[in-house]
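In this section we walk through a basic example: taking a raw amino acid sequence and producing a predicted 3D structure, encoded as discrete structure tokens. The instruction is simple. Fold the sequence below.
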Amino acid sequence: MGSSKSVGSGSAYTIRGIGSFGVGAANTASVVTASNGHSVNDSVFADIGFYDLERIEVLKGPQGTLNGRNATTGVINFITARPTGETEGSIDVLVGNYDAKRTTMVLNSPLTDNLFGRIAFVVNQRDGYMDNLYLDSKYDDRNESSVRLSLDWLINDTATLSLTTQHNSADDSRPQEHLSFCQSDPFYGCSPFERGPGNTAADYRGHYAGAIGFLAHLYPGVITNSYAGALVSDDPFRKAYLNKDPSHDQNTSFSTLEFRQEFENYTFVAKYSYDTREFHQMNDNDGSVAVRPFPGLAKLLNPAIPNVEGIIDYLKFSEFTDSARAYDFSDVYSNDQQFELNIISDFDGAFNYTLGVYTYDGRNDNNYTVHTAGGGFLANFGNHPYNAVFQSLGLPDMSRYGGLAFNQALARAAVGGFAPSGVCPIVGSWMLPVAAAGGAIMDVCALSGIGGTGMPAFNTPVEISGVLQDSNVRTKTNSAFGEFYFDLDEITKLTLGFRYDDQVVTNSAIACLTEANCGTPLSSWLTGTGPSTGLYDRGDTDNVKARYGTQQDEFLSYKVALQRDITDDIMMYVSFATASKPGGFNPGLASGSVPFTFDEEESETLDIGFRSSFSWWSG
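The resulting token sequence is shown next.
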């Protein structure tokens, strides 16, 4: 079994080397992480870990015939400790280097003769053990806590009502991705043919951020590699050069209410759970610090003109920027509801069974964006030092303008001589050639449309001033499942299982590279029909290119297993099981080679093996 963080906001678990490696919010996990039998977001355990447990179950292979949430690869199920009739408690303190301290406290007590309670609390703190050599700081620390309350009400001798509710919180500087490798390449950015050294930034000449910076007038005619000569750590697993330390903030809650009624020959179980997640993450996306400033387009007019620098608005903060930057942000709001009914037989004969029905309803608002310095200068010309330069030349304040169309018109004017018919609706001082620094002549006719009806005043909203993937996903599942057990003789058992699933996944997705893809098409800006407000409004499909899609899958899977006891300690088994994972949605913009949706996944698993208890080992 393996576990690791993944891009954006998730975590990835593998069993037998098989896991869920699809990128995107509208993907169903192959490995289900569960608490007391109901699935929970896998990042919960990736943060706080586990504590005060009765046991951990790791079930390999398809588990849909026995588990509420369908699992094609396996289930990791954490069974929490239940309250007892004894008054007891414990305090465990684990200390280590980097001032690490993990404190776990448990208190168990009967509240009445038939109501028992248990509360467990854990606090985990540790200093960062990654060195940011640029800021001379430590990051990747731990500051997290969790509390769990468990109540068991013994209604009578055969009926029990159990409540478990848990809340986790984390606020520290752990990164989502610890390390990346890149062999800088002027064409690809990072070469796909070589791994390269750790924490090395992509060559801006082959990176989209270089193109965005070019449109924002950060380079004099040709893109240069802003990271050429950047310092690289000699130990990328422990040290890095970052403009900003990561930030990690997550709050999750998970509650389960279970009713269990024992009858003479079977047990009835009804279970409901509800969980929420709020997640915020910021990372220094390029993993490096640029050493070359932005020379600026105006260097073509006069090499003595200062470099481009200014205050840039990124998604969560503003920062003085004089060289390349890249920050990624992940924001997730999700909630899930699950309900399950089970009947488990307990006959004395050779036949028994377990049957269940299950429903799942999950909502996930997942936003991932990457902001660059070029995108910030491009979005709002008021951030650009050239705005003050133009005002000193007699042009009006253009801080109310920004975006691709405006900056394209500005670039044409700067190089001079582009004045197509109809772009100059205003007559006045804007129509007069203005002597720029160094004696170059700017054709402000190309700029005149900016102040008139040709182009409205508009700043690109910060939310879409970078690369954005915004997915709003709802997943609804209705399932029926069960297993039937036949004792063929005293040492041989046959198991037959089935599962039926009806799942519907809907997705409202926005994928943007600034407003070029997210909002009004560029042609609308150039013809003067582009809107100046309401660009980032999901309800206004005229202005936002949100893609809506539905994936509905219906499938039946089964299981056949035979086990035979060779001795009292050794059992041989053979099992064949099928499983299906529903289709989903690809992130990013759909194209001919990358469709918006992908089909369901079907698997067949054959297991043959031995299991032994090794009772002789214990003496």
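Looking at the output, two observations stand out. The mean pLDDT is 83. The first strand starts at residue 2 and ends at 5. In the next section we compare this with other chains.
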